[in-house]
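Notes from hallway chat w/ T.B., transcribed later so I don't forget. T.B. wanted the structure written out for a chain they're using in a teaching module, and asked if we could keep both sequence and structure tokens in one place. Agreed to drop them here.
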Amino acid sequence: MPRRLAADVGPPTLADEATTSKEAMVKNVRTYTSRTKTGCMTCRRRRIKCDEAKPYCKRCVAGNRQCEGYAPQTNPTPALHMIIYTPATPSYPSTEPEKDSFQFFLAQSRTCFPAEFSRAVLQAAQIDHVFTHAIVSLGAAQQIYEYEDDPATRDRLGNLAMMQYGKALHLLQNPAHPCSTEILLLCCVLFACFESLRGCRRSAVVHIKSGLGLLRQSGGPEAKWSLVSWGTMTAIFTRLDNQIVEILGTSIHETVNESPTNKVYFPGPVTVKLPISALQISIDTHLNHLFHRQLRLALIVGGRVPTPEAPPTKEEISVSLGRQQALFKTEGLDTELLQIWQLMAQLYVKVEPGTGPEEAWDPFVKDFDTIVTLSDAYLTRERLQAKKRIFSFSIGVIPPLYTTATRCQDPHIRRRAVRLLAEYPRREVMWDSTVAAEVARKVMEIEEGSSGLASSSISDGPSEDKHARVRTVTAVLDDEGGGRFKFMQ
């Protein structure tokens, strides 16, 4: 055969490229095929290939050998063809700083959320890099907030957190990376908490508002929920919705830079009915209906048209709350918090903040005193942890203390509430205790200053001056750790 010269070798043809491409596709696939055992006995003993001709194989006849025939046929085993596929490398952090922040999430951050939610996030992180980046960013941000005061360490962790957060957002915006509604909802929660931890509460509101819109369009419990149940997701966003409505009220459009005439400006409660379910979820749901009822009344008073989906009546909420009272004796988790919010819900039913007169709060001095005492016990127990500040996703202790400090007219009780807010720094997603303490002090200054009460000379009871009461405090949050607050009398 003549040797092919180098000059005879032309450019690769389409057939050559196709062969190369096919070889690359099966590069990491190993194929196994079992040997046949149906040849004649002579060829099998000589370990050569038999043509299996009958009655004697042609190979034996051509070699002048005696063909010993074939073994009796049984049910033949089909040839076994196996393909072993090696999956892609799991989505885990690679560098040491990323691993440290991931481990922080495993050790501490995930305990802030419901167990089912944390399991779903960690399960998704095994196959989707979006969650790996989100987990690392949240772990780094929480570590900064709760433990770190050293500027160099805060800068290092802050850069890591922002880089990972940016990568997660970039993947979600990539058209080649499709995401289900369930994945997007999980990300909205993680992103809102991340923005809250770094003080960007306006951005946190945007993520929560997006998640609420997705949840309402998800199809409810009849939709396919593979990672986390619809009930758990609804409970999480009910709590977040409570915070938005309670803090921002009718001024939410100013925080998110939207027109107040937007039709999706204020949707109704997250769940329409009052379920009899887990106690803490039920408390959140009752509060959601109460807050949206107050919001609806405020919109009507302000000349705006609220959503047609009206929440339950005050009487229905009150009866439902009464049914839950007996469950407190059997509930052992965060007992003080649940008792605090039971009192708060009852106060909201009786007073309807923002719509009734401020004097309607005055008969409940004993309830405010109980709220502060329970809050003190809860915060004292939490202080045993070696944290400088605390991030929490729980139902929260900041709103009851803030309400006590701004509504209660007993100077001793309201100062105790402000002291707890200031001495136990914490963030409960949208609520910040330091900001709440500053706003409460301003309310006290307005009310007590005009009534002649000096901070060094505290009276023994509520002020008799009815003209200095602060009726509402409206907030416009920013991404700089604070916001603008208006005090209306």
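Follow-up for T.B.: The chain has a mean pLDDT of 79. Might be a good example for the class.
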